[in-house]
Amino acid sequence: RKYFTPTNLSPLWVGCYDRTDKSLPKRVLAYIDRLQLDQYPGGVPNTLQNTNEQWDFPNVWAPMQHMLVMGLDSLDSAEAKELAFRWGQRWVRGNYLTFNKTRAMFEKYDAQELGGHGGGGEYDVQTGFGWTNGAAMDLMNKYGDRMTTGAIE
Question: What are the recorded GO MF terms, alphabetically (predicted)?
Answer without folding.
Answer: alpha,alpha-trehalase activity
